[in-house]
Amino acid sequence: MLHTAALIAPIIGYCSFSCGMTSYLWCKGKELSKLGWVLAIFNVAAFLYLNHILLIDLIQRVADTSDGYISIFDDDFVSDVSRNTIQIMITYIAASTAGGYFGAKKKFKQD
Known about the structure:
By secondary structure, the chain is mostly helical. It has one domain. It is built from three helices and no strands. The protein is elongated. The model has no long low-confidence stretch (mean pLDDT about 75). Keywords: Membrane, Transmembrane, Transmembrane helix.
């Protein structure tokens, strides 16, 4: 069910949100309740599970050819996989940076 092309963008969106939320909760630190820590752990687990599915799906979509065979040393295959992975990593880094900024901003807010 999760291996459909229509779900690639929502999975990337959820994983990006999960990165940002986990970074926000982590930077918020001592103010966090037990429920907040459970939410952070749940976000990390969901991120790892969905990211695993996402990366496998993206690699399989690139490797899918009409004859069913692709060499892993093919330059087009390697460049497509690396481009997809780099785009996803940039999205995750941006989301976690934004979440960390807002978490730290709230933590170190002066009255």
